[in-house]
Every structure is written in C-alpha cells, then in structure tokens.
TrEMBL record, chain A:
It comes from Panagrolaimus superbus. Pfam families: Ribosomal_S10. Residues 36-133 form the Small ribosomal subunit protein uS10 domain. Transmembrane segments: none annotated. Belongs to the universal ribosomal protein uS10 family. SUPFAM superfamilies: Ribosomal protein S10. It is found in: Mitochondrion. GO terms for cellular component: mitochondrial small ribosomal subunit. This is Small ribosomal subunit protein uS10m. Keywords: Mitochondrion, Ribonucleoprotein, Ribosomal protein.
TrEMBL record, chain B:
It is found in: Mitochondrion. Belongs to the universal ribosomal protein uS3 family. Signal peptide: none annotated. InterPro entries: Ribosomal_uS3m. It holds the Pfam family MRP-S24. Keywords: Mitochondrion, Ribonucleoprotein, Ribosomal protein, Transit peptide. This is Ribosomal protein S24. Its main location: mitochondrion. It comes from the Eukaryota. GO terms for biological process: translation. PANTHER family: MITOCHONDRIAL 28S RIBOSOMAL PROTEIN S24, SMALL RIBOSOMAL SUBUNIT PROTEIN US3M. GO terms for cellular component: mitochondrion; ribonucleoprotein complex; ribosome.
C-alpha cells in the first residue's frame, strides 16, 4: 500500500484534461459588418420611443449607429356589409396597419453584438416585434484561401 | 384588432353556414353585432358608468382608444400563433372573472393582457369591499398566478391594482 500524501494527489491533473487545455486556443471573435434591427408594431408612438431608446443606448455604449429609417406601413383591409340584407353601398371598413422602422449598427465584434442584442431584445415593449439581420465578415473557406 | 380579425373570420363562415341551411330550420349561430360592438346605449337617468376606454367609440381605436390585449401575433410576418394567443386571452379573462367574482369591476372587461417575450402580464383594476382581507387577497393572487402559469405553460404575472369602488374608474355617466 503506497502512502501518497493527499496534496500530491490533488495537484496532479488527469492526462486528458492537460491535452485539451493546451490544444484548445481561444476562438477568434466574430466580426459583424452590420446588424440591422427592424421593428414592427401597430402603434407609431411606441415604435418611435423604442427607437429613441435604441439610439440613446448605442450612443452611451459608443457604438456606431445609423439613423432610423421609416418604411411605409403594411395594411390589411377587410370590409363587411353594414346591413343584414341588401345595401351594398354601405359597408364597415376594418383595417390593420403594421408600422415598420429600421435601424442598424455597424462594425462591431461578436461579444459586443451578443450583449447589445440581448439587452435591446429584453426591452422590447409588448405588441412590438423585432427582426434582426446580421452581415458577418468571415474568412474565405480553406479551398479558396489555399489557391 | 383581435376582435376585428375574429369578427372578419367568423362573418365569412357565417355566410357559408346560412346558405347551406334549409329554410325551415333555426339558425343557432351567435349574432355578430358588428354594428353595435364597443358602443354603449345611453340611459334615461344617466346611471350607466363608463370608463375612459369604454367611452371611446370603435373608430377611435389607435387614436384615442388602445387595445385591451397587446401581442405581436397580428403583425405582418409575426403571425405564428394567432389562435393560441386568442384562446389564452379568453381563458385568462374567464378565469379572472370567475375567480374574483366580488372583486371585478364592470363585469370583468377592464383587464389588459400584455405579452413581453414569454411572460404574460395581466393588468387591471379590482375593487375591494369595506372588509379588506389582505391575507385572503394575497393567497388568491398567488393561486391565480400559479394556476394560470401551469395552465398556459408560460410565466403569468398579475399586476392587478385594488380600488375602493368601481365608481373611482368612471370617466362619464351615460
């Protein structure tokens, strides 16, 4: 029975763990050329206030951002006859408008992007949907870079 | 906007149903009342209480009148789970109306349901009678939150505010 002091046993790591720690290099951070936020909602005022919040947050964090772009609203219309019988001339008009606004943020790294996007998505108000589009810069695949 | 889309869908189905039914049978479909929805008839002695939201006519929606349930399922390109959300809203309203029978204001129509992410927030006013049993109310709140969260499989938070009497919410009397 070998008597190995506990201190020595604890210090010596496992062989597999050693190889993994030395070979695994930190992955280079992703680079984003542009991240576009498109916000859709039924209420113009809510979207406007959310966009001012987005711009002020980016300003405080020293992130480059573009101006807010207002896109034309998308309209869904349906009419119903007002009367039970006849009178085609008189209808009830129902419509739903989806207002759209766009804003983009450019030249940021992956870590900044993930925190920023998560923060902005947590603050999205109710009744508003957000769509995020990425333009990522990545290296050419090996087949192309070797040639 | 939920009500308008639901009305539109049911109206088209209603026309289809009535064409197939023979002349001698009775129609049992619920009347749409699209011409009278959201409007309140005046009383002779001005006893009908109206809150600000109720007093605005439907053509003011989006201008002076806001919606009672806020979700993103009516937006273009975001319509993944419209019927689920509609059903959930109905379930929540009926549950609150039935669980707080003495406490609801104006027949339980004054509830605002908001959805932020996965969480459903139920906001509104409840009235308490002169005997305010705080322990009972806390228990009922907790039970309602737990029950709705388990039922809808989403975190549900109640943000109901208590008011002494529903006359406090009055905007005008018609």
């Amino acid at each position: 029975m070998l008597r190995i002091p506990r201190s020595l046993l604890q210090i010596r790591p496992l062989a597999t763990q050693l190889t993994q720690s030395t070979s695994a290099q930190p992955k280079p951070d992703k680079l984003f050329k542009k991240i576009e936020f498109e916000v859709r909602g039924h209420d113009k005022a809510v979207l406007k206030s959310y966009m001012t919040f987005v711009q002020s947050a980016c300003g405080h964090l020293d992130i480059n951002y573009t101006e807010v772009e207002n896109l034309p609203y998308v309209r869904w219309v349906e009419w119903l006859l007002r009367s039970k019988f006849v009178h085609k001339k008189y209808k009830l008009h129902y419509e739903t408008r989806t207002y759209i606004k766009k804003c983009s943020v450019y030249y940021i790294t992956g870590s900044t992007a993930s925190t920023l996007v998560e923060y902005l998505q947590r603050q999205v108000p109710e009744g508003v949907g957000m769509k995020v589009t990425y333009n990522e810069i990545c290296a050419f695949p090996e087949t192309m870079s070797n040639k | 906007m939920n009500i308008t889309t639901a009305l539109a869908n049911t109206s088209s189905r209603l026309y289809a149903c009535t064409s197939q039914i023979s002349q001698r049978s009775i129609t049992t479909t619920i009347p749409l009342c699209k011409n009278r929805a959201g409007k309140h008839r005046a009383t002779i002695d001005r006893t009908r209480l109206l809150t600000y939201e109720m007093s605005q006519k439907p053509h003011h929606i989006g201008v002076r009148k806001a919606w009672l349930s806020w979700h993103s399922q009516n937006l273009e390109e975001f319509r993944q789970s419209q019927p689920i959300v509609l059903a959930q809203d109905e379930v929540i309203r009926r549950f609150i109306r039935g669980f707080f029978p003495q406490n609801i204001t104006i027949n339980g129509t004054e509830l605002v349901i908001k959805r932020r992410g996965n969480v459903v927030y139920v906001t509104g006013f409840l009235q308490h009678s002169k005997r305010l049993d705080i322990r009972r109310i806390y228990w009922m709140f907790g039970f309602a939150e737990e029950f709705l969260s388990l039922l809808l499989k989403q975190p549900v938070k109640l943000e109901l505010q208590f008011v002494t009497n529903e006359t406090v919410l009055a905007y005008n009397y018609i």
